[in-house]
Design goal:
about 110 residues; hydrolase activity; alpha+beta; 2 helices; Mitochondrial_chaperone_BCS1
Length: about 110
């Protein structure tokens, strides 16, 4: 039996596909911490920021992190939909998400923090 638990945080959520604030907070945290550990980075230009160029973990990358002494893994991923939509407001074909993986013995610590 697989001893790990995964929690997925989607960039967009709900019927109207609003930006998920939790995703943004995690992305900011990972941008600050992953640029030193990830092998592949992506660069984004941020207007009206003290740091005009922000580096973050690229898609299909994973980094090891630690939370309260517990080893966790973060990965950045995306899924590209092949379906065609004929809508006045077409939905994005790319869905981004972050995955947090940790050992099941630490479930309470991770999920209640």
């Amino acid at each position: 039996m697989y001893p790990y638990i995964q929690i997925t945080f989607h960039e967009l959520s709900g019927e109207r596909l609003k930006h998920n604030e939790t995703y943004k907070v995690i992305q900011t945290y990972l941008s600050a911490n992953s640029s030193q550990r990830a092998r592949k980075l992506k660069a984004e230009v941020v207007k009206d920021s003290q740091t005009p160029l922000v580096l973050s973990m690229d898609d299909n990358q994973e980094i090891v992190d630690e939370f309260n002494g517990v080893k966790v893994w973060w990965s950045a991923n995306h899924i590209t939909s092949q379906s065609q939509s004929f809508s006045y407001y077409p939905a994005s074909n790319e869905k981004r998400f972050l995955t947090l993986t940790f050992h099941k013995m630490h479930r309470d610590l991770i999920t209640t923090s």
